[in-house]
Design a protein that fits this description.
This protein is mostly helical. Among the domains are: 60 residues, no CATH class; 85 residues, no CATH class; 83 residues, no CATH class. The longest helix is centred in the first third of the chain and has 62 residues.
Length: 344
């Protein structure tokens, strides 16, 4: 009996010992987890604080970036346009008569933004030695490099902001191919030649279109290529401009065709005006692609299975009076009253 009691007591003592040891280990593990979580939280806070400080530094750097850039220029290396005039008098006269003289009035940004040296760089070494390698000659730079020098001032306007990704620069046509700062033939925009002659030096295939019987009056000078196209690049195909409502550039003049209409003619909205018209010139009235109106309409309104446009009615005999579709469908660009475009 005594032996049994002692065994039971020993078992109870061992059980209590195991329980106490387990609680101690569990408590230690929890403390360790809490410590890890706390250290992670502190580390995260430190990282967040570091990122915040870095962002603040970047913001301050962005705000003072321009002034720092101006401060890095060595003013002693700039001699001013009057020094350039002593040798380059003809160019200086053209500079004075052109729009770039305004850079002389800007006294906020430093000498590297003023006069001749704004384009050609610091001129002290060149003026003292006469060495042409010690001054920037834009004609000897690549198209991209010379254009970037022009864009250092001109890139901030909407007209020029897309030039570096424009089709012209991608085809190795830079600013100096169209513009001349010192000897322009056209004072407005310092062009080497007037439009469309300047554009035809490359786009010769368009010249014949503007000589066709029906054409936009570009050769006559009523409109110019740049009224429809932005030569400095844009977001639309063919570097086309857009209206204020971001519609097709055609609606800038042809506002009555713009809509919106209750009953739209689908091609106007999906394919644009060029689905029926050739914009530069045509042998057909209204710049149409086909000589007969019904042939143009039948390109979409056919009996083919996959055509999205409805086919013509069976009684529209194309050998008789139904050839002129627009005699009945007068509101061909869209209507607010008739789904068949019979009236506006």
């Amino acid at each position: 009996m005594v032996k049994v009691r002692s065994t039971t007591l020993l078992s109870a003592v061992l059980f209590l010992f195991v329980m106490v040891s387990w609680q101690a280990v569990s408590s230690q593990s929890q403390d360790q987890q809490l410590g890890n979580a706390s250290s992670k939280a502190q580390s995260g806070q430190a990282e967040t604080k570091s990122k915040k400080q870095k962002a603040e530094k970047q913001a301050k750097g962005a705000e003072s970036g321009a002034s720092e850039a101006y401060a890095t220029a060595d003013a002693s290396q700039y001699v001013g346009s009057e020094t350039c005039k002593t040798c380059h008098e003809d160019m200086f006269k053209s500079f004075e008569q052109g729009p770039h003289w305004k850079t002389e009035t800007d006294k906020h940004h430093g000498p590297e933004w003023q006069g001749c040296e704004a384009c050609h760089g610091p001129g002290k070494a060149h003026s003292e030695s006469g060495d042409t390698t010690k001054i920037i000659n834009l004609k000897k730079l690549s198209r991209e490099e010379s254009s970037k020098r022009c864009l250092s001032c001109h890139e901030f306007g909407e007209e020029h902001s897309n030039f570096l990704r424009s089709q012209h620069l991608k085809n190795n046509v830079g600013c100096l191919d169209c513009h001349s700062a010192h000897a322009p033939k056209v004072e407005h925009q310092l062009l080497k030649a007037a439009q469309p002659t300047l554009c035809f030096t490359c786009h010769l295939e368009m010249k014949a279109d503007f000589s066709k019987p029906f054409h936009h009056k570009v050769n006559e000078g009523l409109i110019s290529c740049s009224n429809c196209h932005n030569p400095h690049g844009g977001f639309n195909t063919h570097q086309l401009r857009a209206t204020a409502a971001q519609d097709q550039v055609c609606f800038t003049c042809h506002t009555d065709k713009a809509g919106p209409f209750a009953f739209e003619h689908a091609p106007v909205k999906t394919e644009g005006c060029v689905s029926c018209h050739t914009p530069h010139g045509s042998s057909n009235p209204r710049l149409l692609k086909r000589s007969q109106v019904n042939l143009l309409c039948l390109e979409c309104h056919t009996f083919t299975v996959d055509s999205a446009a409805p086919a013509i009615p069976s009684f529209h005999n194309q050998a008789q009076k139904y050839q002129a579709c627009t005699l009945c469908h007068v509101a061909i660009h869209g209507s607010n009253s008739d789904r068949f475009l019979f009236k506006p």
